[in-house]
Structures are given as C-alpha cells and as structure tokens.
C-alpha cells in the first residue's frame, strides 16, 4: 500500500524539467526528458535542418581577443616545466569560452518546429544535453494536406486573418523506479491507529445497514449467536 507521502524530485530531475519548460517557449510540439536515453532512441525520426546563427561583430571581437591572449600565454610559458596555477586556470577559461562560441544556436523553420520535438538529458559529466529538431513519423505532413495546397496558391489566403493559435508543448519526463529501500519502508509501514479506528467504524455501519435491509439475515444471525 502506498504511504501517501509525496516523494520530492531529485535536484537533477528538477533541473531537467526546468530546462524543458524554458525550451517549450520556442514552440516545439513535444519535449522528451530523461537522465539517459536508450541507444537508438532517435531511430525512425527525421532530423530537421537548421541554420546556425551568425556571429555578431562583438562576438567576433571577443573571439579574436581570446585567441590573442591564449597565444600569448602559450608562447610565454612554452618552456616552463609546469604552468603557474593562475595561468593554467586562465587557459582553461579561454578554452571553455571559445568552445561556447563554436556551439552556435540554430534557427529552424517555424512550421517545422510546430511538428518537431526535443530530447533533453545529461552527459556522463553531468552537463546538460539538448537535441532539437526530431520529427516523428505520425507528425509528418501528408502530401495531400490542404495546407500545402493553400500555401501553393497565394490567392487562397487573401482576405483571411493569419492564425494566432498557440500550440502547447507536451513535456514527457521519464520516471525513475523507486529505490528498493523506499519500497520496503512503504510495505512495512503500519497503518495509523486513527485510520484503523475509522475503517472499523465504517465497516460496522455498513454491516448494520445490511442487516437492517435484510431482517431474515438478522434473525438468522441472532439465532446462530444464541446457539
């Protein structure tokens, strides 16, 4: 019997769910969240094509400055047997910053976003992994879809207001099996005395009602008790 207590989600699960809710604002049809997905979970899904966002002039200037600083430090300490701690730390920060610029956000066709989904998980080092743009076979647009014909004929849209309906993203979070220790605790936990008393009272009232509606059974019960 379930204990009735609500088990709090681990911080890791809350982080994944929070990220999913943030990404849902982009308009995806579904988001699947799990700490780890099974091998081949994207098999049979179509990956939509996106276009990476171009670097801004400010970002390009930052990258140039980081590359210059990195080259200067590496040249200055190229003959050192061991890098000073602060230099080693700074080089690590530069590498992380440059790697972040390489992982550019992608732009997708809004029509594709409306039928595609996202997978969110974490890698072996605990870093968040987001994989956007997967379309399930059942969400593909049929070749005879009337919207396609309408798009091919611009005159069919004349005099019509554009659709303003907002699609609600379906977020599915993979549940984790409870620990064996928690299951044993729930199974071995006795019912509270107050609950037992209430259940007994309800059972007694139900028995009285049944006997009142069936006098013959009540008479037979009395005779049996007397004997």
From TrEMBL:
Residues 153-167 have a biased composition (Polar residues). It comes from the Bacteria. Residues 139-167 are annotated as: Disordered. This is Uncharacterized protein.
